[in-house]
Amino acid sequence: MDRLAPAETPLSPAIAARWSPRSFLPDAVPEAALRQVLEAARWASSAYNEQPWQYLITRKENEPEAYAKLLACLVPFNQGWANAAPVLMLACARVNFAEKGNPNRWAEYDTGQATSAMAIEAAALGLQIHQMAGFDAAAARTAFAIPEDVTPVAALVLGKPGPADALPEALAQREMAPRSRKPASGMFFAAAWGQPV
Ligand SMILES: Cc1cc2nc3c(=O)[nH]c(=O)nc-3n(C[C@H](O)[C@H](O)[C@H](O)COP(=O)(O)O)c2cc1C
User: Fold this and answer.
1) Which residues are within 8 A (CB) of 15 and not within 5 positions of it... i.e. 6 or more apart?
2) What's the domain range around 147?
3) Which of 42, 84, 100, 123 is the most exposed place for a label (fewest CB within 10 A)?
4) CATH at residue 152
5) Where residue 2 falls among pLDDT bands split at 50, 70, 90?
6) 196 located within any domain
7) Is there a contact between 135 and 144 (Cβ–Cβ < 8 Å)?
8) 125 contacts 37 by C-beta, under 8 angstroms
9) Beta bridge pairs of residue 152
10) What is the maximum span of the chain, computed from C-alpha positions, in angstroms?
């Protein structure tokens, strides 16, 4: 299913194609495609080139126990649809700089950038990523022995989007609802705060 962004200006194809499905086909993600998606994250920019992101990757087919363990960390609403996806990941941020150990206040920002790069690369391959805030970070930390100085930031699923009608009715409606964004006038200011571009 395609859900191209109804953007006000032309966008590069992968940015326009990226969206967050909840219906996924069960097909495994080919290894080359998974590698390509991860490589996109590796090449994201970061403050001081610290590259503070770390990802736990679980494939339903290859690591079913780890997949189930991570799935159990999601809130019930997300478990309900995310369990269809073949790949479930946890995006984490190392919150201190490696060299001096001082706090890196851009760690989560940079992790988001890396995940965004992944999502765009996935869209370029006909795959999609759906990010989730709805998970229990403490449970994930315990389940996977995540070190203290690493913060679980978001859970993600990756896979090929499936048909909306594979979802329960209410979710199917949301899957097909028009995509929307706030107006640009409240986001981009010209020279003075609050002055629309
Ligand atoms: C950090 C983050 C957390 C999100 N958490 C959830 C979530 O827990 N459950 C969910 O169904 N969608 C979640 N989403 C998906 C957003 O609702 C979705 O990105 C937004 O509605 C815009 O839609 P689009 O990604 O299709 O453009 C999350 C997205 C982001 C970036």
Assistant:
1) 5, 120, 123
2) 13-186
3) 100
4) 3.40.109.10
5) confident
6) no
7) no
8) yes
9) 92
10) 53
Distance 50 CA to ligand 1 centre (A): 26
**CB of 152 closer than 8 Å to CB of 141:** yes
Note whether residue 79 is domain-resident: yes
Centre of ligand 1 from the C-alpha of residue 156, in Å: 10
Mean pLDDT for the chain overall: 97
Q: How many domains does the chain have?
A: 1
Rounded to an integer, the average pLDDT of 35-56 is 98
Indicate whether 130 belongs to any domain: yes
Contact assessment for residue 189 and residue 196, using Cβ atoms and an 8 Å cutoff = yes
Could you give the percent of the chain with pLDDT greater than 90?
98
Q: Which atom of ligand 1 is nearest to the CA of 154?
A: 1
Q: Token pair of 188, please?
A: 């981009």
Task: Flag whether 197 is in a domain.
Answer: no
DSSP states of 67-131: HHHHHTTB-HHHHHHHTTSSEEEEEEEE-B-TTT--B-TTHHHHHHHHHHHHHHHHHHTT-EEEE
Atom number in ligand 1 closest to CA 153: 1
Residue nearest to atom 9 of ligand 1 (CA): 132
